[in-house]
Amino acid sequence: MSKYTYLKEQVYEANMEIPRENLAIVTFGNVSGIDREAGVIAIKPSGVPYHKLRVEDIVLLDLENQVVEGNMRPSSDTKTHTLLYKHFPSIGGVCHTHSTYAVAWAQAIRAIPNLGTTHADHLTSAVPVTEVMSDEMIQRDYELETGNQILDLFAGGKLNYEETEMVLVACHGPFTWGKDPAKAVYNSVVLEEIAKMAYLTLHINPSAQTIKQGLIDKHYFRKHGKDAYYGQGC
Amino acid sequence: MSKYTYLKEQVYEANMEIPRENLAIVTFGNVSGIDREAGVIAIKPSGVPYHKLRVEDIVLLDLENQVVEGNMRPSSDTKTHTLLYKHFPSIGGVCHTHSTYAVAWAQAIRAIPNLGTTHADHLTSAVPVTEVMSDEMIQRDYELETGNQILDLFAGGKLNYEETEMVLVACHGPFTWGKDPAKAVYNSVVLEEIAKMAYLTLHINPSAQTIKQGLIDKHYFRKHGKDAYYGQGC
Amino acid sequence: MSKYTYLKEQVYEANMEIPRENLAIVTFGNVSGIDREAGVIAIKPSGVPYHKLRVEDIVLLDLENQVVEGNMRPSSDTKTHTLLYKHFPSIGGVCHTHSTYAVAWAQAIRAIPNLGTTHADHLTSAVPVTEVMSDEMIQRDYELETGNQILDLFAGGKLNYEETEMVLVACHGPFTWGKDPAKAVYNSVVLEEIAKMAYLTLHINPSAQTIKQGLIDKHYFRKHGKDAYYGQGC
Amino acid sequence: MSKYTYLKEQVYEANMEIPRENLAIVTFGNVSGIDREAGVIAIKPSGVPYHKLRVEDIVLLDLENQVVEGNMRPSSDTKTHTLLYKHFPSIGGVCHTHSTYAVAWAQAIRAIPNLGTTHADHLTSAVPVTEVMSDEMIQRDYELETGNQILDLFAGGKLNYEETEMVLVACHGPFTWGKDPAKAVYNSVVLEEIAKMAYLTLHINPSAQTIKQGLIDKHYFRKHGKDAYYGQGC
């Protein structure tokens, strides 16, 4: 039995949330997790439908994308996940879905503005969207460059990956992350909901604006940081 | 065994309607109930996912927000609930959700106009929306001030809390109430449906108007008051 | 045991399709059926939630709205059903729902144009919408006048109730009918779907037009009349 | 026992995906499959609700639309399926649904533009839409002419049926195909999702454009052709 079975189980469970939460149809989407000490990443195999996925199908790789354990080909998006783990040192899970409303914002190449407290409970910024990828980057090493675009966006926009745990890749769809695989998927669930709420809000009132900074901070910091009083403190 | 077990059970059951009726994702939303004679309020603990919630987790407080029974931290929205119980003396339950269409109207800072009989069966007014909260109120005592904004809206708009059992808090979402916790959640289910119907109506006919007063009264009073003939009279 | 148990069972089953097909929330909606020889109508009792409804709760009335059997109060919409049975002699069931998209068109006071073959498979006309009711009619005998408005619409528009088995009551919602209670509910399911399709179509192409008469007739008459070749001929 | 039981079972299973995936209500939709060596097509019988459909109800026909086996009338859309099998020699299954968003685009008589990678993962072109059928064609042999319109569209638009496995028939709805009945239904599931995503995208950003050719090719060819690296290579 693999010494990484616990990690495979975590990643398996997180992947199975994708169909349960209607975050993607058929085989779309993938979740990974990392054992930071061992430098081992576990990820969904490529193109496997969720109802056929088994714990033992989860593929293990190192941070250079070399397979460590498993007989299946890893997700075609693996290099994007790996790059995020390398540059976002405190994250433990990454999730990529094709959830409908988040994809629509990504295809519209529009950041999702922070229009209410459901959004502000989870992040202070808009949900940012990358630039459209250049032809050179597409041809070079597409999935690696997808990761580079996310890193460039966070660097250029002075975004903190620990406070903004989600991004839209232009013309493609969302990536989310968090302290573990379960939190990464949780963020995809939240993102889809705020993407839908923002869509509807702007169709009721096209001039709806980002809410005031005081309200954003109040909601974000009642859930995050040392003065948080939401939840059970665990 | 607690002498308030019956109240905890009522409040537990009402909270479990939130995921069943798709009124909120993950841990969002909370329902409370009150024993008026004892002055005891029962409410969902903060940040607990519904599939893990147990009857014994429901927290008991007095009207000054002091915990009377329970090991968990109460909902972060507790002070809003308490204030409503203090000022709306005939209500027995309060419900707060982040249901998608109701939140969209709240984020759009638009009252939901009374566009048809589904709405008029439940309230004669529009579903009112509060003002955006001032920075001073946000910083002072946020959840208490949320309650104050609802009270001010009802006082200023000459709204009767027994006839209009729902409100939208601007940039946030809905609160509903009723004679008991079950009725409070029922009103959240109805609100989400009329919020969706109003959204669609105005996208079919942008000049749709509030229906005539005679039709509003006919529908409201066939369900409410001494001449009601809807239902089984119980 | 009632000699009309078969009718109560048919009507019970048809009513239970309303929540199964998501045609209405909580207690909204009602289906009736008629035994033409006996002149007996069976209908849902008023205000009973579907998960509590039992076969024996179905109320029996005559065509003058007098209760023949049953301890519960019949649907508050009973007089609308009765009037339709009186004037549409070949129908055996009537269904009223508050399904979301059909209600939105009714609240928008817009007929649903015949935009495609899903619609034309079921009716050749638009789904018609009544006038807004006058204050005099509302005050006189509301549910009876709702029926009168439907009859006036069909008479004035030269609509054939056997070819157009559905209508939108302005500011209220849909009524549908058919040869038996099951067909009446089936028509409500179809109506909700074509109401949604028409909504979306006009939001993709605001100048979408009623399809050509030849295509309407082709689809309608491959399913209806002596030359029909859809289905198994039963 | 029929020597084509394996084919009937495949076609039965593929048809049952239609209600499971919410691709059509009531009896709408139909899937067929072909045994190329025997020249035998299996298809859903006309007008049968899915919950009553049985393996033995699947009808067998030859390529001239003559029934080879089965007591029921085949789908009224049979001649469209047959014509596609005749002219698209490598396909093994055809699926027709009335899925909501795909129908809306068909009723709007608008091709679905390729707005993102979910679309590009499956086809490089837009989802094409036929011309509105002439009155002469409607009256001649409607279902055959529906097939002819698809063939004309592919010939005129220089579309490759192996790369574009889906089409919208104007004012009607989608047809999809693939190497077997299961793949044909899979394509209907994907089509409904990209139809919804495109609808939402254009309502967030009305000037959203077809994505760049390099991105289309990257996504399409990582899943298709000799250099594909998505999936498990089977």
Report the CATH architecture of chain A: 3-Layer(aba) Sandwich
What strand order characterises the main sheet of chain A? 4-3-2-1-5-7-6
Mean pLDDT score of chain A, rounded?
96
Shape of chain A: globular
Number of separate structural domains of chain A: 1
Q: Report the helical percentage of chain A.
A: 40-55%
Structural class of chain A: alpha+beta
Cα-atom Rg of chain A, whole angstroms? 17 Å
**Largest beta-sheet details of chain A:** 7 strands, antiparallel
Q: Low-confidence stretches of chain A at least 5 residues in length (pLDDT < 50)?
A: none
- CATH-derived topology of chain A: L-fuculose-1-phosphate Aldolase
Assembly context of the chains: homotetramer
CATH class (first level) name of chain A? Alpha Beta
Descriptive key words:
homotetramer, about 230 residues, alpha+beta, L-fuculose-1-phosphate Aldolase, 7 strands, isomerase (chains A, B, C, D)
Descriptive report:
4 copies of one chain form a homotetramer. The first copy, chain A, is of the alpha+beta class. Chain A has one domain: 3-Layer(aba) Sandwich (L-fuculose-1-phosphate Aldolase). In chain A, 41% of the residues lie in helices and 13% in strands. The longest helix of chain A is centred in the C-terminal third of the chain and has 24 residues, at 181-204. The radius of gyration of chain A is 17 Å and the shape is globular. The mean pLDDT of chain A is 96. Chains in contact: A-B, A-D, B-C, C-D. The interface between A and D is medium-sized, with 34 and 29 residues.
